[in-house]
Amino acid sequence: MAVLDVRDVKLSYGIEDILKSVSFTVNKGDKIGVTGVNGAGKSSLFSIICGTLTPSGGNVYISKDITIGLLRQQTENDFSDETVNEYALSAFSYLSEMEKRIEELSLQLDGGEAHVIKEYTSLSDRFSALGGYDYKQRTAAMLGRFGFSGEDLFRPARLLSGGQKTRLSLVNLLLREPDIILLDEPTNHLDIPAIEWLEGYVKQSKKTFLIISHDRYFLDRVTNRTLELENGVSCIYDGSYSLFREKKDKLREDQMKAYLLQQKEIKRLEAFIEQQRRWNREKNIIAAESRQKAIDRMVKIERPQDKPKGISFSLSGTNAKGYDVLSVRGISKSFPGHKLFKDLSFEVKQGDRLFVLGENGTGKSTLIKILTGREYADSGVFELGYNQKIGYYDQEQQLLDDSSTVLEELWSEYSNLTATQVRSALARFGFIGDDVFKSVSVLSGGERARLSICKMIMTGVSLLVLDEPTNHLDMDSKETLENALREYDGTVIAVSHDRYFISALAGRILELSHSKGATMYRCGYDEYLAKRTASQQSDATPTETAATESKLTYEQEKRDKNRKRSIERRLPLLEKRALEIEKELEEIVLREQECQTDYEELAKLYEKRSALEDEQMAVFEEQLELEEEYKKYSE
């Protein structure tokens, strides 16, 4: 049954057409993913459906008695002086009013008036049927699920961070349970456990959902249809995001083939017509007219429109890089009343792709800031390897100057470049024409992200430190970034909640947990999930265990492929380092022979040789271990 019908909706601002012709129908229970590049009009379409924005043309039809709820990307102005708990409970304002009336009536019961007893009984029954006796507990549970507990509940909602406000708005929306739920980037400020919970909620819910998201993993798991906005028009496909991409690419390919074949046939007929007309005999003229009619009768196939231009770049490393990139020893960090991590130690080697995962509040971004010198640890030390050059990306893009234009922001950092070189670099990140004269203060989240990444990669770096790099990027930009990082020959440390992104790149995972502290996994994301799930399900029932094993079998092939690729990248680096160590040891032996009587120098050389021999043994052991594992994937 159709619950929403959008017919030929248009939206223009001046001479700029945002939506040219958008039409689609939504059936009850649909879970529709809405995709398109930044600026395609996705959020504007949601505002039109909700009635807060008037379209330039077309109509939106909503079935009778159907309610709609919207989670917007920007929620800054939605809050007054209500506390977090009060704002969440406002989803049940009708129950609160009923509760007050029931209390008033209960004080009048002693009078024994029939109409009071009747109203009290009727209202109490309705209150109970609507969940009046547990709505406060449900609200508290939902707030806890999204990271609000304890003293957070009594804080004024207007004082929350942007991410917390988004999460609180999501809590309020889910508690209200409208018939059609519109979610605009719901996963942007959620940690992975909260995203997984939301996935389960959407999948099990019988409500209708339209979801704007750049989280491909999320869309693949929850949606059954995909609506794409491209070049101002819409097209809806059956299937999840990945299936939509396959269908769209095939459709574009087939349309291009058909277009080229038709153009070839038209040119052949036109050449025949021209030849016949040159001969200019009666039968030639008749033949030419016949072929012209054939051309005129053809249903012309349109050439597929070019894809909207996305960002295009590559990452270059630096030649001055060593095998030892970063050593972290005993790092601890706490804030008043809140311990993040304690005695955290790990090593990062050349070529590693280390992802830091964990719930919100476990200190992922704080750790990144410590390692890049933007925050101080309470104790412990960390050391960068010789001549390492760091490129840092901040999820809040706080390293941009809002008083600058886009052009000035980049040029001030690289004043040795010409205006043409700077504008060329900006063009690869989608800043074309007058875009370069925009003030940084008016840029969207996606534009700020693109500008930050552009600044970061202008010079070669050996270590990329990335804090939520995909948060504001559209799908194509994410895939471009993934491909660039896959080809990048340096080292990457990243914090991300984008599971598709993590799955594509991670070679090692550092998990930070409130309960278990820090755990290092020397594997990719899918294998990490398998290990985590196996640990959580160790006491599960046989049925639960069987379901888990079935899921793991389904994903095994992908895990093996990712792990094999990770080993192929790691083994040459180990072999290179083994040769370097051997050469360094030879040099130390020669130096020891030259310093037989300099006992202080000999002691230093001995200490260095011992450290190199220990590292050599570790490299050999890792080589053997990986070679044995690689045989398993090659059989």
Molecular structure report:
Helices cover 48% and strands 19% of the residues. The chain is α/β, with parallel strands linked by helices. The protein has a six-stranded mixed sheet, with helices on both faces. Strands 14-15-16-12-17-18 form a six-stranded mixed sheet, sandwiched between helices. The protein starts with a strand and ends with a helix.
CATH evolutionary superfamily of the largest domain: P-loop containing nucleotide triphosphate hydrolases
- Terminal CA distance reads 51 Å
Number of strands: 18
What percent strand? 15-25%
Stretches where pLDDT falls below 50 for ≥5 residues? Answer: 539-552
List the helices and strands and how they pair.
Layout: E1 2-13, E2 16-27, E3 31-35, H1 42-50, E4 57-62, E5 68-71, H2 84-89, H3 93-106, H4 114-129, H5 135-145, H6 162-176, E6 180-184, H7 192-204, E7 208-212, H8 216-222, E8 225-230, E9 233-238, H9 241-279, H10 282-297, E10 324-335, E11 338-349, E12 353-358, H11 364-371, E13 379-384, E14 390-393, H12 406-411, H13 419-427, H14 445-457, E15 463-467, H15 475-487, E16 491-495, H16 499-505, E17 508-513, E18 517-521, H17 525-536, H18 542-594, H19 599-634
Parallel strand pairs: 3-7, 3-8, 5-6, 6-7, 12-16, 12-17, 14-15, 15-16
Antiparallel strand pairs: 1-2, 1-4, 8-9, 10-11, 10-13, 17-18
